[in-house]
Amino acid sequence: MKKQAKHAPYLHKISHKRIDPPALTASASLTTVVEEAFLSYNAGRLREACRLFTQKMLRDDVTVGLSISGALTPAGLGISCLIPLIEAGFVDWIISTGANLYHDTHFALGQEMHQARPGLNDLELREHQVIRIYDIVFDYENLLGTDRFYRTLCRNDAFQKTLGTAEFHYLVGKYLAKREDDAGGKQRSFVAAAYRCGVPIFTSSPGDSSIGMNLAALQLEGSKLRIDPLRDVNQSAAIVYQAKKTGGQSAVFILGGGSPKNFMLQTEPQIQEVLGLEEAGHDYFLQVTDARPDTGGLSGATPGEAMTWGKVDPNMLPDTVTCYLDSTVFLPILTVYALATHAPRKPKRLMEQLDDLTRLIEKGYAANRKKNRKE
Predict the structure, then answer these.
(1) In whole angstroms, what is the distance from residue 201 CA to residue 171 CA?
(2) Percent of the chain scored above 70 by pLDDT?
(3) What is the 8-class DSSP label of residue 114?
(4) What's the rounded Cα separation, in Å, for the pair 327 and 245?
(5) Across the strands, what pairs with 21?
(6) 50 in helix, strand or coil?
(7) Domain boundaries, the chain
(8) What torsion do the CA atoms of 6, 7, 9, 13 make, to the nearest 10 degrees?
């Protein structure tokens, strides 16, 4: 007993609370389950992630960037989770794989996606022109119809110019939103929701998706549409720079990893290392991943490793959470928890400010170059 008493102060210093949960009941809310039953291991990290997101990342002066990788929209998570988060003002800007945006379009066009099971006979699926994404199946015509939609839409005069991917997706979202309105107003596309709320959506690899493939085909037709990924680099960095320069904070919410994760985190090295502007890194880092750090891949890289690149503020490392979990499990839980525990935020409508924000970072870079020339 004396030995326990001797070490009790240290034990309490490193612990949160005693593990002594109440028995769950049939009437327990999801918030109660998260707070009272998700105590340790990855469940504990999920609880910490929910708290970090709602208690710190959703403060009014924090700009929240969301990166999306993995096939989330085919599983319906655009409808069930991303649209509610966007409409609640919980997401201010987005970086997504092109595939998630392409499959999001299926829902806006009224095309059907179906639950199935893994282990189907893929040769039979191919013979019946059925496409499979693990346990999701859909008709090959979905691809052909969505291809036709993008080629027809992007032949319009409004697209015959050079655009960054955020500008391109905002324009696409305008047409998808109108299509939803004309069909009765049921919102099924998160790209359309982002348009309505002024949320920029960037794609870090615009050629690496069926959307990019169709734009490449239009180029062979003589289309004047060009996608400028370098514009994206400056615009995304400008969002972060403005958030920090005006006294606010920047938060990154990473679903999966891959190119979207890197593109979101590289905004800080772009500001500090390349443009030479004073900054310390993102303030809040929340990642959901199934990737291990020991393989050396970016998807599994820890916030501590990111800190060495200037991507995360070293003073804010305690406010980072990595949850090793499938995003399709995590995101619905976080969405309900956030909507239940935090009031909606006023949308920042950053899409409407991109030109001004970019001019601000351009001005800072010009002043820095002038100063360096003198030295």
Answers:
(1) 11
(2) 98
(3) E
(4) 32
(5) none
(6) helix
(7) 37-111+162-205+227-374
(8) 170
Q: Centre a 10 Å sphere on the Cβ of residue 143 and count the other Cβ atoms it contains.
A: 17
Contact (Cβ atoms closer than 8 angstroms) between residue 93 and residue 65: yes
Q: Report the alpha-carbon distance of residue 262 to residue 284 in Å, rounded.
A: 15
Tell me the one-letter amino acid at 292: R
* pTM, full prediction: 0.94
At a CB cut-off of 8 Å and minimum separation 6, what does 185 contact? none
How would you class 298 by CB atoms within 10 Å of its CB: exposed for 0-12, middle for 13-18, buried for 19 or more? Answer: middle
Q: 93 - beta bridge partners?
A: 65
Alpha carbon 213 to chain centroid distance? Answer: 22
| Reported confidence tier of residue 165, pLDDT bands at 50, 70, 90 | very high
List, by residue number, the catalytic residues. 311
CB 286 within 8 A of CB 50: no
Helix (H, G, I), strand (E, B) or coil at 138: strand
Question: DSSP readout, 132-154?
Answer: EETTEEEEHHHHHHHHHHHHHHH
User: What would the pLDDT profile of 219-253 be if each residue is shown by its tens digit?
Assistant: 999 999 999 999 999 999 999 999 999 999 999 99
CATH fold of 37-111+162-205+227-374, please? Answer: Deoxyhypusine Synthase (3.40.910)
Q: Which residues contact 194 (CB under 8 A, 6 or more apart)?
A: 86, 94, 169, 170, 173, 200, 201, 351
Residue with tokens 């707070």, as numbered in its chain? 35
Tell me the pLDDT tens digit for each residue of 295-326. 898 899 989 999 998 989 998 888 899 999 99
